Structure formats: structure tokens, C-alpha cells
DNA sequence: GAGCACTGC
């Protein structure tokens, strides 16, 4: 332990913490900050007046770091040193060093806003800027004003971010703790390659042929590219002359890979063999692969973004930040000196890369966070002026308020309602919390609990789908229920009910291509939600899953009604004469039911007039994912409410949100239009040829005189206008 | 008739 760099700074750290309520600690990889800061402060008496708590953005990190600290202090995990993550609280009355996920600390502060039991709060990995850590930073800033005498805050961050965080906390001191990494030589390419995959391939083979042993880690954006490069590498390696270089193992690594495939990267290679790990940014922070000496960094990452004016998410390939680039490079220097090949010029790194990635708070829907903050009753703070390190846009806050109003979480003046308070207690998106509460009124709580729990685990349910396994499986699970035509929520309910009928048999999951881990998670979530609902209702609710199936002609009416109330802000109306939909309540968007949906059309081939959806996502087109058929009569009250909506009033009058004029107009470079522009008022989707590397979702055309006025929507829902002569 | 990076309560 004595070799950890941070320990040489022990006196300095203690002294600085002694004299300041907030300290920023910049600790590079390998500095030991995550395990040592808490122990240093413990040694100097900070656990006498309370618990030292350390937050982590990820569950595995909270658990593994706690385990290490317990080992180092030679105590049993869960006694003096413990951790708390969702579904798992391993702390006791004797715990004085506690690791937890940032989300758990936020939940705790709901019932104890002053966090009185803690003498020190360490927000670790703050540079990752998770939504929860950002909210915590705002809360903690407020907390030190109230508890200045007996609370110490430490924020750990990255070099490029330290100044900004310090400024946010009234210019608090910054401590630098060097890391313990071997030097990594950075090699930039002269130009940006025209094809990243080809360039990756060439660089990888060059390393393989020329460089001494050591594994190669390659960062790409997603599963598709990874699979392509893996097969390219396999071909190329096979064609190398036998004996001319060492053997090679090529491993893909991404999140949708089944766990048993993911852990393959942890087994060391046989002698005289080099591994190529082709990965998403999962290997940047979440997984650490040992033995890596060479990193190839294409400089891109796939990021999810939310557009508050359309309510639409998109998944975009964007440039990484400098912090990310450095993090990736650092992966080469864990065991010995390494090399990082960047497939972009150093000028691009310097001039184009952001210092830090755009924080999640500026890329997400904020309904949940705003409701959470409202429920804290911070009378001294106006939510809309809440002090964030990077404030979200006014538009995003307005969107959040609108959502909350439509589901009765706040009233027309923006104050939280009793409904809203209950909703904030549930670890769910507000729309789903609202659904549960409504379902309770209609006597279908048990079903709603199942649906909501299934939605929380949706991405973990299906078995990893790579193209190769797809081929093998000609018969896609025919035995699963189909939602009886009402849509995906009902199908999710029916799937869980089937599993319930099969007594939660693990083999049933396997037979039906469902991940066991995912289904177990659903069970846990459902149980947790049921407990919270019981507590709220203070009576006994019927949350049991019913062991009877298929009452004939069950139309799930009550459940669908409850969903309609919860998803008031996620409503779409079918267009006349075709099966496209228009979103209601947002700037009107033409959207389609996702092809994977089980929603059924009637005998005439027509889809229901109204649906609610769980998510709007722009991929090749804007799609509604997870839809449920609802009825006109249930929609009317929502439309009435939308009519009365006054967002200025929702923002509490005093805090008038200023209009933001930062909607970026997409530059149209090429004005060639292909396709049939029908010269009438009907929206017509055209194919649009363009010169910029922006992909457009749709083009609405309208003829005016000899010109065609086009309204063009790009992937993130931003719109631009273009006039074309015809 | 598509396809989705990563977390978390």
C-alpha cells in the first residue's frame, strides 16, 4: 500500500480538508483516490462525528472498492466498511466508511435532506458527469452553507475539469495527486482516415507484425462496426504467413454481448499469442482489460441525446472529449509502457475535442430530476434557478414542467402535488409512477407493477443478438404471447405472467430466448415497487401475480386506461387514411410504430386511432417504441389539459424562463431533391440528397407558386427550411 | 420490416 502515490500527500490532504469545507481532488488513474481518501480521513478522526460516504457512478465499482477497503483495514465487509446499492445494503450500525452509487445517495437524501449522519461526502468520478452526480453537486453546494461547521466535501475530478469545479464551489482549493501509470506514447495520424475500419485494420496489423508482445484494445462506436472489424481482422490474420508472427485471438466486447462472452476478455492469452479486443467505450471505464499495451482510438462514441422540443431521443455518433481520449490512452499503460494510436490529427484533438463530454443533464429528459428536486421542498431555492455546474437549457426545464403538469405531479402554478410527492418516492420515470398510482385506483395494480418492472429491465431481457446467432435461430420464439393485439406493454405483462405460471423456472427463460438475469431483475424491481406501494398506501394492496391465465376476451381495459393517464405526454394520433402517427402535445412530429412492435391492425389493416408510447427514438426514422392502444374517450381529458397549458405559469411566475434562440439551423449544402413532391397540403416524405454529413429524417413539401417550400427535419428533430425552384 | 453506446434508483 505504501507505494500508492496518494499516501505521500496524506498530510497535505488532511491539512487542506481541515481548513476548507470543499476540496477538489484531481487524481489520475492509479492514484488510489477511490480507496485511500476515505481511509486517510478515517485515520484522522473524521469518522468520530459521522460516517464517511463515497459515491460511485456504477454498482460494480461501489462493491469492489468497498471490498478492497475492507480488506486493507482487515475488517469484515458490511461491518466497519460497507456498501449500499439497489437491492443490496451491506452496512450495519457499526459502518463508518460507506460506498454507494450516486443514485442511492439521492434516494437517501429524500428522507434525510441534510444527510446528518455523514461527516464527509466524497463524490468520486465527478468528471464522468452522470446525471445523479450533477444533481448531488448542486445539493451538496447548498448543504455546506447550512452545515459548514460539521461537513466536509471532496470532489474527485479530472485535470481538465478541476478549475471549473473549483470555481463552482467558490474557488475551493484543488489538490493534484499523480497517478501510477506507465508512460504511454501518443501517436496521432496525419489526417483523418476516409474509412475508420480500414485504418483500424491496418494499424492493428502493423502492430501485430512489428511490435513486441502485448494486447491491442481498439475503441469503436457500436456492435455493427465491431462485428465488421472482427471479421476483417480474422481474415487478415489468417492470410498472414504462418510463423511470421505470433498467434492472434480476436475478441469483440460490447454491452449487448451475453455475460459469458464478456468475461472472455478476463482470461489471459496462451503464450506466444496476442489478443485484439475490439470494444465500445465499455472498456473505457466500466471494464478493465489486463494485458493491454496498445490502444487504437478512432475518436468517436455513440451518445444518446434528448430533444426537449420534440420529446425525441436519438443515438448519435459524436467526437469524444479530451478526457475520454486520455482515459482511452491510459488503458495502454496499466502494466507497462504502452502506445496509443489515435486515428485523428493532434490538431483535431486540440481544436475540436471538448475538454469534457457534454454532461448527461444536458442530454436527458429532466422530468424525474425536476420532480425529485421539487419534492425536497428546498424553500430557499427556486428549482428553475437551481445551481447546476452546467445548467440544462430553459427549454429542457420547460419540457420537464410540462410533462409533470400533464401527469398531475405539479399544479398549474408549478407547485408539487400530493400525487407528485408519492411519485417521487418511486424509483421510476414519472410517467410510470403515475401509471402505478392510477392502476391502484382501477384495481389493476398487480398488472401495472409487472409492466413497469418489465420496462425497467427491457434491455436486459432479450438474448444478445449478433448477426451470426440470428442466422442460427430461424424460428424466433413462437411460444411467447403477442399482447393480444393491444401492444407491447400487454405483451410484456403476458410474458411475465407466463413465467410466473411456470414457477419462475430458469429453463423456461432459456427456452424462450429470455435472459435469466434480466427476468430475475424484473422480479426484484417488481418486489421493491410493490413494497413501496404498500408503504404509501398504508394498507394492504393486492400486488400478487394472479395464477390464472386468459380470462377469455380480456381487453386489459383498466390497465390501458392507467397507462394512458401515465403517458399523457407520450400520446400519438393516427393520421387519416394511413398508419403513420402524429405526436400530440409536442411540435407535431410524423412518427411510426416501430417494426418490432406487436400492436395489431384491425381487419381493414388500420391501426388504432390513438396510442401511447414509452419512447420516441430516431434511428433511420422517428419511431415509437413500446406502444399501447388507447381509446378516444381517455384521450379527451389530456387534450383539454394541453389546451389550458401555460408553461410560464408552471415556472412559478417569478422565474420567467427566457426564450432561448439557440436552435441550430442545419446548413443545407446541396439542393438537389429526389422523389415525388406532391403539390398539396399533405405531408409527403421525400428522399433528400445532401452534401453535408447530416442525415435527415423527413422532408415535408408544399408547393407555393413555382417554388417548393421544404421543411426538413434532421435526426435530432431540429428543423430547417429550404426553398427549391421547380 | 428494423437494429441500440453506457449507466442507475
From TrEMBL:
The keyword Nucleotide-binding applies. Residues 204-377 form the Helicase C-terminal domain. It is an enzyme of class 3 (hydrolase). SUPFAM superfamilies: P-loop containing nucleoside triphosphate hydrolases. One of its GO terms (molecular function) is RNA helicase activity. Residues 14-178 form the Helicase ATP-binding domain. Its EC number is 3.6.4.13. Keywords: ATP-binding, Helicase, Hydrolase, Nucleotide-binding. It catalyses: ATP + H2O = ADP + phosphate + H(+). The keyword Ligase does not apply. Pfam families: DEAD, HA2_C, Helicase_C, OB_NTP_bind, WHD_HA2. PANTHER family: ATP-DEPENDENT RNA HELICASE (PTHR18934), PRE-MRNA-SPLICING FACTOR ATP-DEPENDENT RNA HELICASE DEAH4-RELATED (PTHR18934:SF234). This is RNA helicase. It comes from Acer negundo.
